[in-house]
């Protein structure tokens, strides 16, 4: 959004994000998405223009929260894929998703996002979808990486670059982002998956 705003400073920009695969939308399957726009009047007009019988839109003025939710969930999806690909089971994935969501919330709120945005479609909703479906590129990449299988280099895996960028930012102002750090290290081939798991499981015990 910031890039668009710099390139077109007079544009009234909106963001459409949330739990959806293009293939599902193309088939006319029902879903719900977040429409984020800083201008509430523009957001409401777009909501009525774009909603249809199979796509339900919820509007928000929290553009930062919607953007960060859509970006951060890709990192956690890679981690979820690593968990499943390594044969660690659904219980481990559920725990990973929950603690990953806590990381997303900490990071986004520290940068001005509203907590309720991360609890909505563009945060938690998108996280659930992308961490549990083989249609997710980031999840599938994590599975392939854990199983030492080739992954099509033409396929975009946004979470790899996002993990590196978020980990660098987290080191600057120190929010607690252990899962993101491990994803950055594993996808950067600095740690093995076994080493990353050991680091996460041996962290000091604390309150939730």
| Overall 3D form | globular
Calculate the mean pLDDT score and round it: 94
Overall number of structural domains: 2
In CATH, the topology of the largest domain is named N-(1-d-carboxylethyl)-l-norvaline Dehydrogenase, domain 2
- By DSSP, the count of extended strands is 3
What low-confidence regions span 5 or more consecutive residues with pLDDT below 50? none
State the share of residues found in helices, binned by percent.
Answer: 55-70%
CATH superfamily of the largest domain: N-(1-d-carboxylethyl)-l-norvaline Dehydrogenase, domain 2
CATH architecture descriptor name of the largest domain: Orthogonal Bundle
Class derived from helix and strand content: mainly alpha
Any idea what the radius of gyration is? 18 Å
Q: What is the multimeric organization of the chains shown?
A: single chain
Strand content: 5-15%
User: How far from one another are the termini?
Assistant: 33 Å
Total of DSSP H or I helical runs spanning 4+ residues: 11
- Main sheet record: 3 strands, mixed
Indicate the CATH class of the largest domain. Answer: Mainly Alpha
As laid out across the biggest beta sheet, the strand order is: 1-2-3
H/E element order: HEHEHEHHHHHHHH
How do the strands and helices of this protein lay out in sequence?
Layout: H1 2-7, E1 14-17, H2 22-26, E2 31-37, H3 40-50, E3 55-60, H4 63-85, H5 90-110, H6 115-118, H7 121-132, H8 137-146, H9 158-173, H10 178-187, H11 193-201
Parallel strand pairs: 2-3
Antiparallel strand pairs: 1-2
Helix pairs in contact: 4-5, 4-7, 4-8, 4-9, 4-10, 5-7, 9-10, 10-11
């Amino acid at each position: 959004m910031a890039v668009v705003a710099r390139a077109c400073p007079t544009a009234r920009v909106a963001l459409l994000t949330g739990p959806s695969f293009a293939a599902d939308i193309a088939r006319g399957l029902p879903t719900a998405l977040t429409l984020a726009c800083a201008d509430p009047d523009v957001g409401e007009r777009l909501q009525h223009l774009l909603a249809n019988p199979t796509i339900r839109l919820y509007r928000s003025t929290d553009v930062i929260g919607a953007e960060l939710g859509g970006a951060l969930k890709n990192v956690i999806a890679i981690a979820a894929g690593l968990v499943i690909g390594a044969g660690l089971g659904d219980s481990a994935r559920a725990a990973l998703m929950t603690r990953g969501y806590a990381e997303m919330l900490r990071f986004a709120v520290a940068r001005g996002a509203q907590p309720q945005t991360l609890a909505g479609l563009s945060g938690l909703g998108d996280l659930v979808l992308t961490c549990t479906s083989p249609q997710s590129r980031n999840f599938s990449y994590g599975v392939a990486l854990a199983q030492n299988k080739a992954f099509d280099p033409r396929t975009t895996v946004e979470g790899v670059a996002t993990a590196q960028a978020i980990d660098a930012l987290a080191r600057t102002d120190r929010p607690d982002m252990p899962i993101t750090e491990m994803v950055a290290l594993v996808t950067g081939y600095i740690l093995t998956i076994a080493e990353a798991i050991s680091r996460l499981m041996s962290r000091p015990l604390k309150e939730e």
